[in-house]
Amino acid sequence: KQITMTTKALRATPLLKQAIYPFYVANKPVLDKTHLAPVIDKYTNEVAAQVCVADKTVIDKAIGECVKASSAMRSLPHYERKNILLDIASKIKQRADEIAKAITVEVGKPINDSNVEVARAVDCITAAAEESVRIHGEYMPLDISQRNAGYQGIIKRYPIGPVSMISPFNFPVNLVAHKIAPAIAAGCPFVLKPSDRTPVSALLLGEILATTALPQGAFSILPADNKDAPIFSLDDRFKIVSFTGSPTVGWHIKNNAGRKKVVLELGGNAGCIVDNIDDKALSAAAQRVLFGAYYSSGQSCISVQRIYVHDQVYDKFKKMLVDGAQQLNQKRGDPMDTSVFLGPMIAEVEAKRVETWVNESVQSGGKILVGGKRDGSFFDVTLMEGVPKNAPVYCKEVFGPVALIERFTDFKAAVDEVNNSDFGLQAGVFTSDFNKAFYAFDAIEAGGVVINDIPSARVDTQPYGGIKASGIGREGLKYAIEEFTEPKIMLIKNGGVL
To answer: Model confidence over 265-301: pLDDT tens digits?
Structure first.
């Protein structure tokens, strides 16, 4: 990597404020230096800081404290939950610059994208605060027959109890926010294991949580070794596991979770249909597809991977993508530089994996239109066509800056191709035809269908999750609160009868 004068200026002072970050047990920082793990700056490959790593004894203690806090969290008034969440959102906003820099150091994500992630986390937690005071119940008439005469019911939702959370590296603040915020809103204590590649962002949130009015023991945030990670899904004191990450790990967690409820968000290889639309709409679609395929070096579970373009606009749209991708490859560099679009991938081993998949696709008949080269942990913005459908770069989740383009003539056939996947998280459809939009909504096998935008679009209040190999359950504040609560009914016989 070129350490330019710009890079030296951007890194003249340490980007992370602490040399060693403590973990959090029962709301309190613990600076246990017994086992320290390095946090690598993904651009310079230098150690930027260290974090304290929790062992089995610490994890066991944290879970015990979480269980003890269940009663206090359960009885926490809804207005207090709201105030706590608003306090968290306000303090994140005050430290936005520090947190964004931590994301960029840990992930290699361009600082512009990191700033957006922090802003989204503020929105997410603010919306959770609003939802915390409108966890509604239900009235149900139950006199459905003469046998049930006089019966009625009232249904309320109650906190499910201690929550285990396991978060990924790619959005180390907002995807943590999507777990902790609905848990607090629902009245659930939790233990969070952040990604070992990006622990500092979560620990910064821990600093903020520790300054709030959360009951003692309400949260613990524990970087941990992979050998100890199974505790977070196996321990029966947890009532639910919320996991975001790879399908392999996610389904293994489900298979071994026992009686615990499990929520899994496991990614996909998102399809995007571009119909026969006018030039203005086509140009706008090209810009969105370029962003959706390549932002954060393609390391998003809803990154645009498979692009299906109507035959009548295929050549024109392909040229737009080729020209745009070539320009994006000129914006590669230090992710702390605001002019940079393409930063490094999370690790060189992942860039090598993408390189292997691309080369295998070429050997199988695929054609590289743009990019295809690796430089250390950087991988070019890459566009391909003619890739066989059994190639890993087509049928698996690339999780890198690679997209594939192919043409279609029949809209229904294009929808079938989107569905020709093990995954089903989100899909995008650009069309001016109202009936095609509704057909796509009904027929596409995914948790979300985005009309006239990319599958990478996510509004933080929407129900978010997939079907097939993409997971089970839903995130998205109101919907995550439902996952973190259980309905209980009070049956009333002859209520109000005098």
So the answer is: 998 999 999 999 999 999 999 999 999 999 999 999 9
CA pair distance 52, 196, nearest whole angstrom: 11
pLDDT digits (tens, 9 = 90+) for 25-80: 999 999 999 999 999 999 999 999 999 999 999 999 999 999 999 999 999 999 99
What is the C-alpha separation between 188 and 245, in angstroms, rounded?
22
Q: Catalytic one among 106, 117, 131, 265?
A: 265
Using alpha carbons, select from 136, 163, 63 the residue that is nearest to residue 482.
136
Among residues 355, 279, 305, the alpha carbon closest in space to that of 456 is found at: 305
The alpha carbon of 248 is separated from its chain's Cα centroid by a whole number of angstroms, namely 16
Which residues, in sequence order, are bridge partners of residue 272?
307, 428
Q: Which two tokens stand for residue 361?
A: 């696709």
Tell me the C-alpha to C-alpha distance, in Å, between residue 443 and each of 276, 326, 414. 19, 34, 11
Q: What is the pLDDT of residue 193?
A: 98
Give dist(CA 117, CA 100) in Å, integer.
8
φ, ψ at 128 (rounded to 5°) = -65, -40
Catalytic, out of 66, 301, 385, 397: 301
**Contact assessment for residue 275 and residue 312, using Cβ atoms and an 8 Å cutoff:** no
pLDDT in tens, 172-183: 999 999 999 999
Whether 265 is a known active-site residue: answer yes
